[in-house]
Amino acid sequence: MMYTGSMLAVNDAVGVSNLQRFVDCRLGNFVILKIHWHKNTTVSREVIEKAINFCCEHHIYFMLSEFLDRYTREPWKLLEHLTKEDWSDFQKLGGEFFCGNLTICEKGGAVYWPLGYKHGSMLMEKADTMDEAMGKYVDSLRLAVEAEHNWNRENLVCIDSSLLHKYHFASGVDMIALELFPGNCEMMFPAVRGAARAAGKTAFGTDIAMVWYGGVEKDELWFKRWKISLYYSYLSGVTWAVSETGEFGINGPFGRYHDFDSDVCVRFRNILHDFYEYTRRNPRPEGLPQVRIAIVHGQYDGCGGLWNKEVWGQYQDEKFLHSDAEDSYDLLSVLNKKSDWFDAGRMGERDLSGNPPLGQYDILPVEADLEVMQKYPVLVFLGWNTMDESLYEKLKQYVSSGGRLFMCSGHLNCSVDRKEPIRLYNDGDVADLFGVRLKRSNRKLRHAGLKFIADSDMIEYAYPNWTENADPKYMDTFIPENQVELCGAKTLAVTAQVFSAYQKENLAGTPQETPAFTEYRLGSGYASLVTLDGYPGSVGIKEFYREILKCVCAAEQDKHLQICAPDKVRYSVYDDGEKYSLFFLNTDFDLPAAVKVFYRGNCRELIIPEASPETLNISKMED
Which residues, including other chains, have CB under 8 Å from residue 606's CB and lie 6 or more apart? Predict the structure, then answer.
């Protein structure tokens, strides 16, 4: 069941009146009862009980908002009269309609908020290394979660707008949710979903802070953005979605007040009501959307993904400023962007770029169990990662059992100190996983690029191999080389300064080409490594890794079900065993979109109006 609704203020001043309006306006089947942040009125036990009883009588599922201050771990002043027994009773009273208690919401702000927002206990304790910084963050969360448990508050739910969700699970919360605005939700949702899968969960939610972060003017584009955010959440797999505010009145943050009967609030409610009805008419099959590609969220990665550019919120030392590792996340835009028509690297019968295979990708915690990793045909590393023996052995098992792995040499870094240069795992001897031995040379090749010189042994993978006689491509300020000893790996691309083999042999001073991208067969899988010195976001690597991501997306298309669509269209695919359910959303504000769906030789064409959803079911028995 999909839960849809609102956050509603419940206190001694308004009682259950907001709940009654929620029912009268037919806005959904789910609410978060806001019982904190009320500065002038208390929230008595009796009012909370009345609200819970109202929800049960009207079959409304609910959560209760925060009780403890997320930093001091003390009860909010106007809630300090509530007891441990009260919280146990609230959960019992709610029965099947009780869905959890919010806790440590936006605690990730300690990482991603600007420094001026933070003071006292909001500041992260100073750390020297990545593992130490992670430990301090998780410990701060865990203390808050433990405090909640001491008050008999169970089924804890954390709402946050960052990439840090795997650490919230590590602290002991039971469910996570995305604050959809602010930040790039097309990057954040994969991180929420990936963290949920890694934790063995199938439920996660979203809080849409449309009034605070959806835009200043309540104009046509604002309303379309509100509508799109709801349907995007649905196709992404959320279990519940709520509006943070807006349906019953808007007061700030920009000094423009709109009351309940205003045109703005009426239209806001109508969009929410229509979405609720859509989810009832178009139920999703059980489970999460199909995903083929997992972007790996590396060990000790503390990139928040928005706002503050200091890893782990460690502002005291400049070594924690974002660098090449964090800049690698910029490459995620490749997955949702249509290739340019003049991009000569694209091949095939049709252009399926603009979305990843089957429409979605996950950002998967590297800490996920091997069994979870093996559900993804492909793992691609971005961001920071610290390699150790346990992770290395798990990746060997993943590849040998049939997985396809893509990494940069920077992901083999076994150092946890950002001040240190990359220190390659096992002194660079990774022959048993990648079929190469690496040695850092600190050589930066100027006036150079890269070229593919061989085809992949993975038949689906069509790298742009223009043969050895070709211009250097993916040129940058310099190409950062490592020394590479081949130990069974196949060289697919090399550094290059010249066009032809003749020039290489006869022009004085032309350096020998160095392997830059290798492929190694291990068991029934393949491990591919960019052997250059750095991360996907590094100078001399970024455009090349972008090309690799494009090739991965093209190669990993489902053999039977493929979608050709503009890159303003988002979609997801659900499989119930008998049929595929496809959920489309045209995110273009003004233009309709044409979509072609290919399945086992048949083609269906759809025209999706601007800022609108569409659904399509395909029987798996169809020839």
Answer: 584, 594, 595, 596, 597, 614, 616
- The pair of three-digit structure tokens given for residue 130, joined into one six-digit string: 């990545």
Burial class (CB in 10 A: 0-12, 13-18, 19+), 45: middle
Give the whole-angstrom CA distance, residue 40 versus residue 33. 17
Look at strands 593-599 and 561-564 and give their pairing: antiparallel
Q: Is 499 helix (H, G, I), strand (E, B) or coil?
A: coil
Which residue's entry shows tokens 């508050």? Answer: 153
Verify cis geometry, omega within 30 degrees of 0, for the bond prior to 182. Answer: yes
Q: Contact at 8 Å (CB) between 248 and 261?
A: no
Query: Residue 449 corresponds to which tokens in the numbers above?
Result: 């690029």
pLDDT averaged per 10 residues, the chain (length 623): 93 89 97 79 90 98 93 87 96 97 92 86 91 96 95 96 96 97 95 98 96 92 98 98 93 78 96 97 96 98 95 94 97 96 90 96 98 98 98 98 98 97 97 97 92 96 91 94 97 91 61 90 98 98 98 96 97 96 98 97 96 96 61
Token digits of residue 158 = 């954390």
Q: Which backbone phi and psi does 610 adopt, to 5 degrees?
A: -60, 140
Contacts of 349 (CB under 8 A, 6+ apart): none
Tokens of 334: 């490749």
Predicted TM-score (pTM) of the model is 0.96
How far apart are the C-alpha atoms of 217 and 130, rounded to whole Å? 41
